[in-house]
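A further point concerns the way the authors explain their paired sequence and structure data. Each protein is reduced to its one-letter sequence and a matching series of backbone shape codes. An entry of this sort, consisting of the sequence and the corresponding backbone structure tokens, reads as follows:
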Amino acid sequence: MTDVILLDLPEPASPGAGQVVIEVEAAGVGPWDRLLNTGGWDVGLQPPAALGVEGVGRVRAIGPGVQGISVGDRVLAHEAPLPGASGFWAEQVLVTAAHTALVPVALDPVAAAALPVNGLTAVQALEALGLSAGQRLLITNGGGSTGALAIQLAAAAGVEVTATASPSAAERLRDFGAAEVIDYHDPAWSDRAQAGFDAALIAAPGTAAIALPLVRDGGQLCSLTSDAPAPERGITSTDLYVRPDAAQLTQLTTDLAQGLLRLAPESLPLTEGPGAYDQVTAGRTAGRKLVLVP
């Protein structure tokens, strides 16, 4: 693992075919950044380099063959692998144009930068589960950034959501649409949940095996923490790894700008990146999404 410190880095290379250089306005921080730093998630990072696989900024330069994007446009992206071998925690970053989405004029850059990885993960997990209105979904760590978005998206689709979270998050999650919030601190929290869920979305490490017995025969489990248990009773059990998707980002930013999704990110100056990294990787954010601003 490389130390996370402030660095002077060269500007990205000129964009090649299908690429753009973004002047970063805000960059998200997440627990996955520890995986980037330890090599657990190979996104092509080549230290010394900037961390970060999500962010927002103005297009500064455009490579050959790029259409629909102009210099000066504000865009956001989740990018992995990183074509420039360096990430968004910087003043500029090189990304794939096809992975960017235009940011609605009314949307604040900090709010937009809080969205890509958590939002795409929530959308792709719910897409994999394929639930219909009236079905029941269990989400562990509903108070986290991904879980909270998944609650909102699932509830908007008519899915009945039960979430595990801390008591301090319960009111917020019910306001987001959760039908029930169970205190995850209770060692017997699974006994309080009414079994027979059509699906479980695992966003808290170590909860997949506990949640599996709560899923009905033939149901589904999707783990975001790489610990999906072996299938049983006809249950489909899979791990999900987020992928870039510009169309999904466009829909997410539209929903956020229209107030259909809610986020409450906390911005910090880029110079506090090492401290933000320590907070997030140690799990000391209490569900807050941290965003770095150059």
Summary: The two ends are 24 Å apart (CA to CA). Residues 116-129 form the longest helix (14 residues). The CA atoms of residues 68 and 97 lie 9 Å apart.
